[in-house]
UniProtKB/TrEMBL annotation:
<dbReference type="InterPro" id="IPR032305">
    <property type="entry name" value="GTP-bd_M"/>
</dbReference>
<feature type="domain" description="Hflx-type G">
    <location>
        <begin position="200"/>
        <end position="364"/>
    </location>
</feature>
<dbReference type="GO" id="GO:0046872">
    <property type="term" value="F:metal ion binding"/>
</dbReference>
<keyword id="KW-0460">Magnesium</keyword>
<feature type="binding site">
    <location>
        <begin position="253"/>
        <end position="256"/>
    </location>
    <ligand>
        <name>GTP</name>
    </ligand>
</feature>
<dbReference type="Pfam" id="PF13167">
    <property type="entry name" value="GTP-bdg_N"/>
</dbReference>
<feature type="binding site">
    <location>
        <begin position="231"/>
        <end position="235"/>
    </location>
    <ligand>
        <name>GTP</name>
    </ligand>
</feature>
<keyword id="KW-0963">Cytoplasm</keyword>
<dbReference type="InterPro" id="IPR016496">
    <property type="entry name" value="GTPase_HflX"/>
</dbReference>
<comment type="function">
    <text>GTPase that associates with the 50S ribosomal subunit and may have a role during protein synthesis or ribosome biogenesis.</text>
</comment>
<dbReference type="InterPro" id="IPR005225">
    <property type="entry name" value="Small_GTP-bd"/>
</dbReference>
<dbReference type="GO" id="GO:0005737">
    <property type="term" value="C:cytoplasm"/>
</dbReference>
<feature type="binding site">
    <location>
        <begin position="206"/>
        <end position="213"/>
    </location>
    <ligand>
        <name>GTP</name>
    </ligand>
</feature>
<dbReference type="GO" id="GO:0043022">
    <property type="term" value="F:ribosome binding"/>
</dbReference>
<dbReference type="InterPro" id="IPR006073">
    <property type="entry name" value="GTP-bd"/>
</dbReference>
<protein>
    <recommendedName>
        <fullName>GTPase HflX</fullName>
    </recommendedName>
</protein>
<dbReference type="GO" id="GO:0003924">
    <property type="term" value="F:GTPase activity"/>
</dbReference>
Amino acid sequence: MEEILEQKKERVILVGVALGDGQEAEESLEELKELAETAGAEVAGSIIQAREQIHSGTYVGKGKIEEIRDLLFETEADGIVCDDELSPAQLANLSQILDIKVMDRTLVILDIFAKRAQTKEGKIQVELAQLRYRATKLTGKGVSLSRLGGGIGTRGPGEKKLEMDRRLIRTRISHLKTELAGVIKHREVQRKQRQKNHTPVVCIVGYTNAGKSTLLNYFTDAGVLEEDQLFATLDPTTKSVELNSGQTVLMTDTVGFIRKLPHHLVDAFKSTLEEAKYSDIILHVVDCSNPFMEQQMEAVYETLGQLGIKDTPVITAFNKIDRTGKNSLLKDVRADETVKISAKEGTGTSDLLRVIEDVLKKQKIYLEKKYGYDEAGKIQAIRTHGQLLKEEYREDGIYVEAYIPKEILGMV
């Protein structure tokens, strides 16, 4: 009997507010449905209210609350999930009026992150984001939070964290920030080592479930989890990839972006997301089969803007053309280059490597030089860090034409 109860999914009603474009609200609620299902819930129904602004006290208006109450009764749902982050007052009022479990989009996303985090850094970042979120909901919420029990929102730090008072949460946050600082320091050491080795870094970014991990696995056999789910992978992975010329680059996969990405997560995952800031190329992977592709691209650029990433070259890889066809019209006016690929089937991936090489070439300087045979080791450095165009063995030495990073000019 206990096993049956554990397997029973929470049934939830989705609630959204349309502040103008009703189509956009429907798209957002459709995504919330995917999020709720990824978190382990079953969606029993949904309600959208068109309003000029979100109700400051109850998120939706009084009449819509009655509709929600009726739908909860009809569907025997266990709770509701609102499509925006609720204020403490909204959360308290809705919980009191409906006498049912009330969640918001942020809580669901944090719950998924808690389930996906595998590394020490990932777990620290998730717990930090969860505690910051819960700290904002403590006012007058001790009783309601303690009623959450199992289900969405109780993974990660554990239910005991829900009972912490402000002082204990602040102490725990301080401890986590100290731990995270150590991890960040280690990451910075690794980053400086990569810069010292002059190995170009290509940072893969994109909306969640766009196919970033599939692409990294195709190039590197990285063994990163691939699932047709939101936030299937959370922890970043860096692997080396050899380009067509033989030059090596490092490809780093990052956490997927999403519309209304909670600021708690952006803050907590800043060290991970900043891998993009220090990269030589941003590889923006886009699911071109998704009907909301344009909005997803906008969400990615918005998050990159929050991280202060503006001048780094962007290559947009329109992925999943196996679902849309190679001749589909696709463009990204903010990208330096675009290419159509299928990471699953490998289509267009050689073109992508060529484009990466072309973009890197623009960041290099042209070298034309003759080396003595006792300097052959320098040519290997050119081959590793640059693009060797010509190599001729002559009587008086080795003639070379190449593109090299300006950082190694003094070495060769």
